[in-house]
């Protein structure tokens, strides 16, 4: 068997040698790449304009591509006059892809990329952009703002909340500190200055999975009325309760003669086991009400506007003391960045606030 294998190898070798001698196999020859017709092309994909960020100093992505018709010689990248990188070795001699992530503050910035090819042709691409924080501008338009950064103070009025029970202030919120709920605990504020024809509330919740009860109040402005059915004809109540084994969020509001439910069903359910921050927004006007979860409209219906009669208290993270008949009491979840507006927030504004997370 070994002798047979050796014979086969010898025969194949003679065949290849003969093929080369007879020019049956083409020789490898150099192909002329042609004339260098143009300089490198620089394409910047990020930033694609002004950069909107939720904090004054944050990371900005820089992404670009350089291509040449023949061969690249060098590429250099500068940001605000500081060299980020310089390259003269390329795996693909006609193409280079670059990416950076740089911490930048608010204001004007200049990105400059210079690419040169082997023929000496050079292309300079300059991108002028601004880093802005319209999220902060939008937050500053709120008439009420609880940031929970070390205190229970409304940042607009500088008024501190009335603290009931033993809530606490934690870390790891969407923008600094956060409210941490506890049994029989919540905050209240004077609500007389929050009775607007149009009303929007935006906030983040990290819904607890360990609370003994399957329901809680979140944000309530309701009158003090011994007749529970009559009390729901005024103000609003935003709360959560069990729905399909998850937590389903609902809005109830009264126009003075009756109350109306805004229940998104399965679309308004959140899984507490995910331990993630979730963005909630509800808006009420003289024509309708809407509920959003993480920027998605989960419920919308017509409404003739809130009647604020007797609604002089805002309860935060509980239905108590005025919406307690169905046991929507203290919420032991975490809350952050509670904002109230005297107008209806647009979807674009809701999406912008959602970037805080």
TrEMBL record:
GO terms for molecular function: hydrolase activity, hydrolyzing O-glycosyl compounds. InterPro entries: ConA-like_dom_sf, Ig-like_fold. It comes from the Bacteria. Keywords: Signal. The keyword Signal applies. Gene3D superfamilies: 2.60.120.200, Immunoglobulins. One of its GO terms (biological process) is carbohydrate metabolic process. Residues 1-21 form the signal peptide. This is LamG domain-containing protein.
